[in-house]
Amino acid sequence: MNFIFRAFMIILFCSSFVFSANAKVVAAISTMKGLVTVKPIGSRKYIPAYKGQMIKSGEWIKTKDGVFVAIVFLDGSNIKIQQQTEVKITSYRMTAKDLKTNLNMSKGQAWSDVADQGSGGEFVITTPTAVASVKGTEFDLAYDAENDETTLIVVEGEISFAGELGEIIAKAMQSSKNGADPIDIKPEDIPTWQKNTDPSFALKLKPDKKGKQKVEEIIKVNIQILNAKSKIFNDSFKGTVAVSSQSSDLILSADGSSWSNSTNVNINRGRGVVQVKSSRQGKPAMIASLDDSESKIIEFEYYQSNTQKRANQNKLANLAKIKENNKLSKLIQENILLRSQVIKGLGNLNSILQKLETGELEIDGDPTLNNNGDGTYTVKMIVKPR
Q1: Could you give the dihedral angle defined by the CA atoms of residues 303, 305, 310 and 311, in that order, rounded to the nearest 10 degrees?
Q2: What kind and span of H or E run contains 161?
Q3: Could you give the 3-state DSSP secondary structure of residue 232?
Q4: Which residues contact 169 (CB under 8 A, 6 or more apart)?
Q5: The predicted structure's pLDDT at residue 20
Q6: DSSP strands (E only) in 208-249
Q7: Geometric angle at alpha carbon 251, from 249 and 255, rounded to 5°
Q8: Nearest to 341 by CA among 380, 372, 291, 292
Q9: Alpha-helix runs per DSSP H in the chain
Q10: What DSSP character marks residue 174?
Q11: Of 218, 227, 236, whose CA–CA distance to 274 is shortest?
Q12: Which phi and psi (to 5°) does residue 331 adopt?
């Protein structure tokens, strides 16, 4: 079978990397129902979210059909996000007490209970057709992308609302579309969807092994379905739980035969099992999600044993001889392998080294050797099919 394979490996005597980000935590997911996804800063891809997850300024939250999420901000403001909604959250501190928060809602609907913003704070929700500025109130804002129309309903307080039809002040029990003159509403006109966002189920994840495990060691995680309120085991549930890893190094399998970064697990009589293993040292995590349930996260800890390090070091020494790279051979002989990993591409380090030994793969060009200046060295190499 012809395929394209190109793996970038950092191997051998590698010092630790520390990544930092300027993005600040501004909110947390308090409740959820179904598979909520978050798009981290700098990423094009949405990934599964979980209850209790911290939300950073600049991240996007998305819900699909039948999915709801509630988030709470640092100032105590609570926002419930309707199904089929996509919103970007931006917030930063203007003073020691005041926050400036903006929700950019590209589609969908949100119910907001905004805490008093004080004299210097600001809470704003924008849609493609309108801007709602709040000082502290309870309201619903919905953007209909098909009709390009934003509808505001104020329950308590008042809101400055600007749209294509003007800029108005909407008071309690009033509504406006795209900034048109507000009209009075009745209690029966107030949306009720925000009262029905609690999940029916909860997930319990229990691994068969605890503590640190060697790289490539398989852990079986038992999945149980519980009643969300009572936490009582539901032995009559039958369905499918979606599981996905938070790291490309952690792979999953529903049956032990095929492995990937995500899979579906069949649940019968309220129980199911997923198998996990990691190709590198670290603390990877897995998220399990189910329709009408809160998602659940579980973290594992893997380490590379001295035996595994020596085996990889011997394989690298053989490769250096084959490549007739005297500098690399000497480096391997005189130092100890600290860490190794695949940083881009498919597969894990052990399988790639094995295929290099058998000739199925070959090194593309000469390995790059870098002196880190702290007594350690980093070797980078690119691998391709022969």
Answers
A1: -80
A2: strand 158-163
A3: coil
A4: 158, 159, 160, 161, 182
A5: 36
A6: 213-214, 219-227, 239-245
A7: 165
A8: 380
A9: 306-322, 326-334, 349-358
A10: E
A11: 218
A12: -60, -40
Distance CA 154, CA 170 (A): 7
Q: pLDDT tens for residues 47-79?
A: 999 999 999 999 999 999 999 999 999 889 999
Span 131-156, pLDDT tens digits: 999 988 999 999 999 999 999 999 99
Q: Using CA atoms, how far apart are residues 342 and 332, in angstroms rounded to an integer? A: 18
Among 283, 326, 218, 279, which residue's Cα sits nearest to residue 11? 279
Sign of the C-alpha dihedral, residues 353, 357, 358, 363? positive
User: Rounded CA gap, 253 and 262, in Å?
Assistant: 8
Q: What is the DSSP string of 63-75?
A: E-TT-EEEEEETT
Strand partners, 88: 60, 104
Q: What's the token pair of residue 98?
A: 């005041």
CA distance from start to end of the chain: 13
Hey, is 356 helix, strand or coil? helix
Please name each of the domains of the chain with its CATH number.
7-16+305-385 (no CATH), 25-195 (2.60.120.1440), 201-303 (2.60.40.10)
pTM for the structure as a whole? 0.75
Q: Which residues pair with 104 in a beta bridge?
A: 88, 126
CB atoms within 10 A of CB 344: 11
Q: Locate tokens 């000082």: which residue?
A: 135
Q: What share of the chain is helix, strand, coil (3-state, %, to 5)?
A: 10, 50, 40
- Measured from the Cβ of residue 250, the count of other Cβ atoms closer than 10 Å reads 23
